[in-house]
Amino acid sequence: MPQEVRCEPSIAVLLPCYNEELTIAEVVRRFRETLPSAQIYVYDNNSKDLTALRARAAGAIVVREARQGKGNVVRRMFADIDADIYLMADGDGTYAPEDAPQLINTLLTERSDMVVGTRRGVTDDAGRTGHAFGNRIFNSLYKRLFGTDFTDIFSGYRVFTRRFVKSFPAVSGGFEIETEMSVHASQLKLPVSEIALDYGRRPEGSSSKLSTYRDGAKILWMFAMLVKETQPLRFFGAFSVFFLGASLFLMAPVLIEFVETGLVPRMPTWVLSVALLLLSMLAAVTGLILDSVSRGRAEQKRIFYLSMPSGRVERRERAGEPETLKTPHGKTPRAA
C-alpha cells in the first residue's frame, strides 16, 4: 500500500506599504512568529523613508511597485505570487498578526473563498471622525446596491483562496480596491465569511494615508462604475426615469395648451421635451442590451473562476487530513 504524502498549504502574507518605517519591522516579525511556514512579502509603493530596508532586515521579501496606489500594488501582488492561501494586511500595525490563524482556519473550515476581518474599533482610528462617518455611509450604500454579504467593505485584513486571487481582475488603482474585491465576490456569489477583530491605533508619529474627501470621491466614483458594469439596467434605468420625468414635466403644459387652443406657441419647450423623451427611450434600450452583455460577462467570469485548480488544501481534505492550521503552540484558535 503506498504511503500517504501530506503537505501543508503554502501561505503568502501580503503587505502593501507606503512610508511605514515605524511599524513594518514589528509587523513582519509578528507574522513570522505567528505563521512560521508562510512567505512574507512587502511591496514598497515608492516609500520615501526606510520602509523597504527595515522590512528586508526583518526577514520579508521586498518588492518595489512604481505605480502609486494600493490597487496597483494589490494587482501586482496577485499577479506575481503563487500560493494556496493569500493573507493581506497593512504594514501600519493596526491589524494584529496573531489573528491570522483564526482567519485562515475560517477560510478552510467554512470553505470560503474570502474571509474579511471586520474592524471592531474602526471609529477610533487616529480620531478621524470623517473616516468613521464615511465607513457607515458607504457600507450602507453597498448593502443597498450590491447585497448584504459584507458589513465592512473597507477592511484591509483579508484571506483569499488561489481561485479568488487569480480570477480577480483588480481594475482599481487606489484604496477603492477593497470595494472592488467585495463586489467581485457578491457578483459571482462566492462563499465569503466575516470575523470581528480588534482594530488597533497607529503608533505616535505614524499618519494615515487616507484623504477623507479625495479618497471618498474616488470610492463613490468606483461605486458608480461598478453599478454600471455589473447592473447596467439599474444604472441606465435611473437615467431613463429621470429623462422621462423631465420630459413629461415640460411636455404637459404644452399639450394642455394645444388641446385648449390648437396652437403650440412654445415650440422650443416642445422640442426639448421630445428630445428628453428620446433620451429616455435610448437609455432604457441601452440598459436592456448591456444587461444581457453583463450577464454573459458574469457567466464567463464564473466559468473562469471554476476552471482554476482547487489547490492542495482540498486534496488534503479528500485524503482524510483535517483542514486546520496550527499555531506555533500547537493550538487551533477558536472562532469569534
UniProtKB/TrEMBL annotation:
Please indicate if the UniProt record lists Glycosyltransferase as a keyword: yes
Q: Where is this region: Disordered?
A: 311-336
User: Which organism does this record belong to?
Assistant: Mesorhizobium shangrilense
Q: Does the keyword Transmembrane helix apply?
A: yes
Q: Provide the alphabetized UniProt keywords.
A: Glycosyltransferase, Membrane, Transferase, Transmembrane, Transmembrane helix
Q: Where is the composition biased (Basic and acidic residues)?
A: 312-326
User: Which protein, by its recorded name, is this?
Assistant: Glycosyltransferase
Q: Which Pfam families match?
A: Glycos_transf_2
Chain segments annotated as transmembrane: 235-256, 268-290
Q: What is its EC number?
A: 2.4.-.-
